[in-house]
Amino acid sequence: MSILVVGAGISGLSTAWALTKRGVPVTLVEQGPIPNPLSASGDQHRIIRRAYGNQGGYQRRIGAAYAAWDEMWDDLGSKHLADTGFMLLSQRLGDGGEVYRDGLIDGGYPFEDLSPEETADRFPFIDPSTIRYGVVSGEGGVLLCQRIASDLRNWLIVNGAEIRENTRVTSVDRSEGSITLADGGVLSADHVVVTAGAWTLGLFPELKNSLKTYRTAVVYLTPPADLREPWENAPAILDPGGSNDGYVLPPVSGTGLKFGAGIHRYQAEPDQDRIAKEGEGEQLRDYFAPPIARIGEYRVDDVVTCSYTFTSDEHFFASTDSKATVVSACSGHGYKFGAVVGQKLAEGIIANDIASARTWLEARD
Ligand SMILES: Cc1cc2nc3c(=O)[nH]c(=O)nc-3n(C[C@H](O)[C@H](O)[C@H](O)COP(=O)(O)OP(=O)(O)OC[C@H]3O[C@@H](n4cnc5c(N)ncnc54)[C@H](O)[C@@H]3O)c2cc1C
After folding, report:
1. What whole-number distance in Å separates Cα of residue 2 and Cα of residue 144?
2. 12 CB near ligand 1 (under 6 Å)
3. Cα separation of 143 and 46, whole Å?
4. Pseudo-torsion of CA 121, 142, 39, 79, nearest 10°?
5. pTM
6. What does pLDDT average to in each consecutive run of 10 residues of the chain (365 residues)?
7. What distance in angstroms lies between residue 53's CA and the mean position of ligand 1's atoms?
């Protein structure tokens, strides 16, 4: 058996890793370098956390996600996860912070409730007058994406996988199990796994009713000097409450302090608007007052644009037709499942039971 994997974001790299571990020859084809800064997996860091609000299937799968990462750290000889824990804030009844907290209660998962004053005592960058409460949990952290990608790339090469960087796939023939490259070359295998992220619709336009592609951006900031240390010791903020659908990644292990907000995204082609716009960093930063105090004192260092796919209900997408499987661990929350998605796909391909992998990925149970 031999497998072609198209796209070396976390889904493709992990699938190649899991297949290679199981003795299956893999060729991984990536249109850019690995890591590719334009991919959804190419930024400095991503959050892993237990809380999943009303998507309980993903909440229940976090244990498997952690176990798969642990297996990967063993193989890479390095743990690329900072165990910061995570925090939720609520500004209004029924906002995102509260929905996530309710999900933790439903699942019986432990967390600590903090009053506004207790929250600001522990995390002095929060304005206590703007929140109803804070919640902290140890079951979360920050995955160091660029280091994961570089190490996986090197591990794959050492372990015999073929890696083709800067090689764009222009089409996939599902019945033949083959791909055509931009230079006209054709590669064939027993099965093709397409993990092309935001570029999936370029290869499979017929999936446009299932997947929508969005463009967004995140901002890297330098906080005021007196708040630098509190931020360095902060948990990842999964939801700051209110209506910006935001998140904050603390500056850990040499990464930057990053703010991102769901309300900033809009539907676009994957290569559209990939240069940040004038004032975009300040706009992103300012979404966060409230609940972040003294927001105007944070210096904008960098703005990184991103492109990713969504399904209508934000569950992952997987579809097999003949000798090709298209997978999108998408909707803005797929990175944390990268390692286990790779394992599930590898097991499904080897057992000729992709349906089980799809059921697991869709997490409706
Ligand atoms: C701003 C933002 C914040 C997020 N925050 C989180 C978070 O905190 N936690 C979390 O778990 N998830 C988060 N996510 C989601 C997560 O980043 C994605 O779900 C995940 O990275 C998707 O990985 P992927 O491998 O499926 O796709 P990608 O990382 O996009 O990889 C696809 C790869 O395929 C390559 N490719 C595409 N087409 C071709 C082709 N034709 N030929 C060759 N190569 C091709 C691309 O170059 C790319 O490298 C976030 C996403 C964004 C955008």
Report:
1. 30
2. yes
3. 5
4. 160
5. 0.98
6. 98 98 98 98 98 94 98 98 98 98 96 98 98 98 98 98 98 98 98 98 98 98 98 98 98 98 98 98 98 98 98 97 97 97 98 97 96
7. 22
> Is residue 308 a part of any domain in this protein?
no
Asked if residue 72 belongs to a domain, the reply is no
From 109, 271, 252, select the one nearest 198 (Cα to Cα). 271
Please tell me the predicted confidence (pLDDT) of residue 59. 95
244 in any annotated domain: yes
Q: Report the number of distinct structural domains present in the chain.
A: 2
**Residues 259 and 327 both lie in one domain:** no
326 lines ligand 1 (CB under 6 A): no
Location of structure tokens 């083959």: 178
Ligand 1 site-directed mutation target among 28, 29, 39, most atoms within 8 Å of CB:
39
> Which structural domain range is residue 282 located in?
86-137+219-263+277-297
Q: What distance in Å separates the CA atoms of residue 267 and residue 285, rounded to the nearest whole number? A: 21
Identify whether residues 227 and 321 lie together within a single domain.
no
* Distance of CA 20 from the midpoint of ligand 1 (Å): 21
141 ligand 1 Cβ < 6 A: no
Q: Any idea what the CATH number is for the domain that residue 115 is in?
A: 3.30.9.10
Could you tell me if 287 and 253 lie in one domain? yes
Tell me the CATH number at 14: 3.50.50.60
Categorise residue 17: left if φ over 0, alpha if ψ from -120 to 50, beta otherwise. Answer: alpha
The answer, yes or no, to whether any atom of ligand 1 lies below 6 A from the CB of 29, is yes
Question: For ligand 1, atom 50, which residue shows the shortest CA distance?
Answer: 332
Ligand 1 geometric centre to CA of 118 (Å): 37
Tell me, yes or no, whether 305 lies in a domain.
Answer: no
150 & 169 share domain: yes
Tokens 């902060």, residue?
234
Ligand 1 site-directed mutation target among 10, 186, 267, 308, most atoms within 8 Å of CB: 308
